[in-house]
Amino acid sequence: MSAKGSEMTQKRPTVVSVEQALSMPYATLRFVHLGWRVIRVEPTPFAGRKSKGDPNRYIGRSIAGEDRHSYYVAPNVGKEAIALNLKSLEGQAALHTLLDELEVDVFCTNTLPSKLAALGIDPATLCEKRPSLIWAGISAMGHDHPKVPGYDPVMQALCGFMDLTGEANGPPTQCGPPITDLKAGDEVFAQVMLGLYERSISGKGKVIDVSMARCAASWLNTFTPMLEMGSEPDEIRRNGNEHRQFIPTNAYPTRDGFIYLAIGSDVQWARLVATDLFAPLRQAAYATNEGRRADKSQLHARMAKRTQGETTAHVTEVLKSAGIPHAPITPIEEVADLPFVRATQTTTTSPNGQQIRLPPAAVETDFLRAAQGQLAFAPRYGEHTRTLLHEAGFTETQIDALVASGMIAGPEDEAS
Question: Count of domains in the chain?
């Protein structure tokens, strides 16, 4: 590895992110999980608007004062927060100084591309000032469509996800989790890692332009190619909990809930009907997937009759003994108590001492292992404005002047 690469591995990378909502905060949360320093930048207060900064601060239940509600907390734990007026040259200059003096490695934003240049955070401006910078942005459709706003359900609608989700005779339906937001965030994480690796060799930065729409379309890997190869749209369109190709794969009622099972091969079907519970379904016509598909409505009904009189626990034992992929339909309020989730969850502590369980990181990291999964609570609006500017070399007099002119804000300043 080059000297620059060796230096990168020794220094904790620093990320500055002009972020709001979920897609980019989720991306930078993944850097927090690695123990990197993440500084979120929010705008100074708008005249006539009571709320300040990221609108997500005010969504959900109030957990710690007026600016830290429940929807905001989880994606923003472990971060620092600064409030700058990037619509002014003074605010932009403060940001540029921050990038230089803190030797920032990665700059992120999910600001509308058409607004980047006016805020002084476009790739050309920042990468010219700091050639080694990794610049990463998320938008609805990339920089070729700079005025298109990005919202997860809109992207799900545009890219066909809603046409694939829901009951066959029901309306188009969005997926539960905001999957296009999260996919875009994961892509930023992956591409920044690649950019840092490439920089360790070349010494040069990189511009990363992540389109939510393109990310969503990339996940249609088993859908659009089938249409190209002769499948009719109804073969892949929404079909409730059934799988169009593998039969039977569906959710079935039990005496006390539901269970989902997936038959992915004829061998698995043979193992299923070898059990006492499902033995009445054993017949020659069902020996192949195509045979089961030909009678799938009747087969699903017969499967339901076998399971509905049994407890979920009993059906689980039968399926487990036969080696059939299965799972109970876990109520969302019980997911955090699943053993594998509980064993890997992250946590944070609110200012009033409440311990809050958070989802686990996608992959365990050395940092989280050392920290025992505990992350600092999500920051107040502008909580670290003064501290960060001091670190960047600003004097108290200079900071007071920026406060007085409305260029910066923090929780202790009247301007906030």
Answer: 2
